[in-house]
Amino acid sequence: MDQKHKFQLIVFDGDFSLPSIDPESIKSILYTAVAGVPVEVRLFNNLKNCTLYTAPTFVHKNLKFKTFSDIVLYLKTLHFNLDRNLTPKEASESLALTNLVQSKLRPLLEYYYWIDVRNTFELTNIWFMRSLPIPFNYIYTRRFRDRAVDLLESLHPTETNFDLIKEYVQRAATECLSNLATRLGNEDYFYGNSPTTIDVLVYSYIAPLLKVPFPSNEIKNVLSMWPNLANLIKRIDDQYFPNLPKGSKYIKIEEKVKTSDDEVSYMAILILTVSATSLVLGFAYSRGYLSQ
């Protein structure tokens, strides 16, 4: 391929044995890997890339595509189509599964990454603040948190109790995981002997739940009920990401995970309490409750 017109994919850095910390970036990385796209993966971790792009961004010639759906649509025009061998019935079912995964698993990931106070202040914020250059670390942590708040607000417009919202999204995700596990059964992939788009999406949402060491992650224990889903993640890792480094680049993870409130310092408790209160008040104010 002409060096001038090569494919480029700009993504957030990987960590915790993931090709990227960002589920949206994982989708594009895995899709291009499975489809055999000769793409140059560039990291969204320096001033130049952070200034010129967002992540993920797929670049070819003078074209830029900034969402997974747009990237896939463009790649299909170039005959990189993971679903080309699906029958019409399978394609219809795959679309339904895609909608299920996006509507039930994405809210859970957004909650775990950016709404759950312990996860946000003990892991996610720290990771992005260290992996991105100033001022983009501040810009993106705020942007992602606002995006998560907007999503959860749109799904639960009358609810301001975050414990209840967490129950809702975890219950919906659990039902989704059960349906996916039943549909996958004992097969290697959802359709045939190689990954299709639905496998890409399932990996992109479930792998972070299994691998990112969230301080608060009840769904990880729930996932143990469906070992075939964990096996799917491992199968894709073995085939497409066999050399991902273990451990963390940006955060030192303690061997002993804190699981009891008694193990958290009084200062951490104060920070968490203030942060949770601030978030609740923000929701209430945005809906006009405080102006009544």
UniProtKB/TrEMBL annotation:
Name under which the protein is recorded: Metaxin
Residues making up the signal peptide according to the UniProt record: none
Pfam family, one: Tom37
GO biological process: mitochondrion organization; protein transport
Location of this chain's protein in the cell: Mitochondrion outer membrane
PANTHER family, per database record: FAILED AXON CONNECTIONS-RELATED, METAXIN RELATED
Every Metaxin glutathione S-transferase domain range: 173-236
Sequence ranges assigned to domain Mitochondrial outer membrane transport complex Sam37/metaxin N-terminal in this UniProt record: 25-145
Predominant localisation class: mitochondrion
Similarity comment: Belongs to the metaxin family.
Keywords (A to Z) from UniProt: Membrane, Mitochondrion, Mitochondrion outer membrane, Protein transport, Transmembrane, Transmembrane helix, Transport
Bilayer-crossing regions: 264-285
GO cellular component: SAM complex
